[in-house]
Amino acid sequence: MAAKPVYKVIFLNQGQVYEVFCSAIYQSEMYGFIEIEEFVFGERSQLLVDPAEEKLKNEFAGVKRSYIPMHSIVRIDEVEKEGPAKISEIKGGSDKIAQFPYGTFIPNPQSGD
Q1: Domain containing 50: what range?
Q2: Which of 25, 39, 52, 102 has the least C-beta neighbours within 10 A?
């Protein structure tokens, strides 16, 4: 039986870069969102405990599914195995990162759209 894939998802959240691992990811039925499920964190048997990973474990404890806005996603990779989840500050400050522009579709009631 094939092993379940693991995905590394990197996204922006409140001026920080989050890097998490999950085993289920797909486009949401909510327009403009990606759903990630089944978060994967490192084993607790390690001698060293990473405070950033512990913070993420606590933040996502009890979360069944997370909805991430598409414009916040930086990168999604399918990886061989999970690594350490982490939160990092944006290098150079948030003034160097511009949000990807997106438009909204508003149907015209006269045209039948």
Answers
A1: 6-92
A2: 102
The pTM (predicted TM-score) of the whole model is 0.69
pLDDT tens string 93-103 = 555 555 555 55
Query: Is residue 113 a part of any domain in this protein?
Result: no
Higher pLDDT: 62 or 69? It is 69
State the Cα–Cα distance between residues 51 and 49, nearest whole angstrom: 6
Domain count, the chain: 1
Quick one: three-class SS letters along 22-83?
A: EEEEEECCCCCEEEEEEEECCCCCCCCCCHHHHHHHHHCCCCCEEEEEHHHEEEEEEECCCC
Higher pLDDT pick, 28 / 57? 28
